[in-house]
Design goal:
alpha+beta; Alpha-Beta Plaits; two-stranded antiparallel ribbon; binds iron/sulfur cluster
Length: about 250
C-alpha cells in the first residue's frame, strides 16, 4: 500500500482538443522517441505497428466514428489520444506494494520509480484508463511522465520545456500547464470549451481534460457556425462516452 500526498496545489497536466486532433500519431511517435527511443530503437519500416505492437507506447491515438443521431447526417470522425491522466486519487498508486508508484506532492505528476518496481502489474489492473505499460525489456511498469525530464530542464530554452507530445502536435491540439491555477491558459481553455473528465464516475479525479468535438455545419469538418459553447456535442447521450468506456475497459 502506498500513500497519496494531500491534494496538490499545483496540478500539471494536459488539455487535449478532440475538435482539432487529426489523428496523425505525431504525439505518440514523439513520446516514444523521447521516452523509449534508446531502449527500443526507431520504428521498423515494415509493419511498424502490427497487430501487437511491441515496446511501450505511453500515448496512443484511437480513431472512431460517432453515428449521427438524425437520419441523413454523416457520421463524425473523432481521434482520441490516450495517456496517463495524472489522477488526483488513483488506485494505481495506493495498490503499489513497494512505493514504486507515487504521486508528487509538488506538482501532482504520477510516476514510477523503476528501482522499486517489482513488475507485479497491480497498478495496471487498478488503472481504468489503460495508461500503464509493462516493459518486457526492463521488467518494470512504465507510463507517461509528462516528460518530467523536459519540463524542468534548464538546459532547454523555456519554449522547449514542454512534453514531447505537445511540442510535436502539428495542429496544437495538445496543451500543457497547471490545471490547479484557475488563471492558467489551460484552465481558461477548459472553462471556455467545457473541458471534461474522462469517466468521472470512477472517482479517480483525472487532472488531464478533454475538449469536446464541436458540431460541424456540414457534419464532416467545416468550420463551426456558432460559439464553441453552443456547438458542443451532447456528451450525456453521445456514443462517444459509451465508446470510450468500451475501449478503456478492455
Ligand atoms: Fe494512474 Fe491510470 Fe490515473 Fe495515470 S490514468 S494516474 S496510471 S489511474
Ligand atoms: Fe492529434 Fe496532435 Fe497527436 Fe496528431 S499530434 S494525433 S493532431 S494530438
Amino acid at each position: 500500500m502506498t500513500m497519496l500526498p494531500p491534494p496538490t496545489r499545483k496540478k500539471l497536466g494536459l488539455v487535449i482538443d478532440l475538435d482539432i486532433c487529426v489523428g496523425c500519431h505525431a504525439c505518440a511517435v514523439a513520446c516514444k522517441e523521447w521516452n523509449d527511443g534508446g531502449e527500443f530503437g526507431p520504428l521498423p519500416d515494415e509493419n511498424p505497428y502490427g497487430a501487437e505492437p511491441l515496446g511501450v507506447w505511453f500515448n496512443r491515438v484511437h480513431t472512431y466514428e460517432i453515428e449521427p443521431k438524425e437520419e441523413n447526417k454523416p457520421a463524425m470522425t473523432v481521434h482520441f489520444p490516450r495517456s496517463c491522466l495524472h489522477c488526483e486519487t488513483p488506485d494505481c498508486v495506493t495498490v503499489c506494494p513497494t512505493g514504486a508508484s507515487y504521486k508528487r506532492a509538488e506538482d501532482g505528476i504520477v510516476l514510477v520509480d523503476e528501482d522499486k518496481c517489482i513488475g507485479c502489474k497491480l497498478c495496471s489492473w487498478a488503472c481504468p484508463y489503460g495508461a500503464r505499460e509493462y516493459s518486457e525489456v526492463r521488467g518494470v511498469m512504465q507510463k507517461c511522465t509528462l516528460c518530467v525530464d523536459r519540463i524542468y530542464n534548464e538546459s532547454f530554452d523555456e519554449v522547449d520545456r514542454q512534453p514531447a507530445c505537445v511540442m510535436a502536435c502539428p495542429t496544437r491540439a495538445r496543451h500543457f500547464g497547471d490545471l490547479g491555477d484557475a488563471d492558467s491558459t489551460v484552465s481558461n481553455l477548459v472553462a471556455e470549451r467545457g473541458g471534461y473528465d474522462l469517466m468521472p464516475e470512477i472517482g479517480y479525479q483525472p487532472v488531464n481534460k478533454y475538449l469536446p468535438p464541436r458540431q460541424r455545419r456540414d457534419g464532416c469538418g467545416s468550420a463551426p457556425t456558432k460559439t464553441a459553447q453552443d456547438e458542443k456535442v451532447d456528451f450525456s447521450t453521445s456514443p462517444l462516452l459509451r465508446w470510450m468506456d468500451k475501449v478503456l475497459s478492455r
